[in-house]
Design brief:
Order of helices and strands: EEHEEHHEEHEEH
Strand order of the largest sheet: 1-7-8-4-3-5
Radius of gyration: 16 Å
Number of domains: 1
Largest sheet: 6 strands, antiparallel
Distance between the termini: 17 Å
Number of strands: 8
Strand content: 15-25%
Number of helices: 5
Length: 142
């Protein structure tokens, strides 16, 4: 389970050091891909395999399914963390998320989001404003 927020820097080769708390869950490999709201998703390989299996089961004739496949699969890149827990974040994904040197790493239970820190803070402020409405989370069952 991925929890918490961390701020790390990319090195000159575009490598990101992942938090030590995540190391065991990511040792078998990761998949990075385009996320929603201008972030990068980082999945453990096993979780991405599960999701891609579900995507494979979607109808080829469903335009929404095709768009979701394009969004996630065509932007996906496999990576293996090195001994220092570093993975290369591909330039095209850094461009999508506007990540240059600093990265906010957010644990999202079964995956991780990588954000440009200012974009995260802007998004977080909007979320706080929406959450102030008592009914915002009411339709979700926890």
């Amino acid at each position: 389970m991925f929890l918490g927020r961390y701020e790390h820097s990319l090195d000159s080769k575009g490598r990101l050091t992942l938090p030590s708390e995540y190391a065991g869950d990511l040792a078998a490999g990761v998949v990075l891909t385009r996320g929603m709201e201008n972030c990068v998703y980082l999945f453990p390989k096993t979780e991405f395999d599960r999701i891609s299996g579900q995507l494979s089961a979607l109808s080829l004739t469903d335009s929404r399914a095709r768009k979701l496949k394009r969004w996630l699969l065509s932007n996906a890149q496999r990576a293996e963390p090195d001994r220092q827990r570093r993975v290369i974040v591909p330039q095209r994904l850094r461009d999508i998320a506007r990540i240059s040197d600093k990265v906010l790493i957010a644990g999202m239970d079964t995956f991780i989001e990588l954000w440009q820190p200012e974009a995260w803070h802007e998004h977080d402020l909007l979320l706080e404003q929406e959450a102030a409405d008592q009914d915002f989370f009411a339709s979700l069952v926890i």
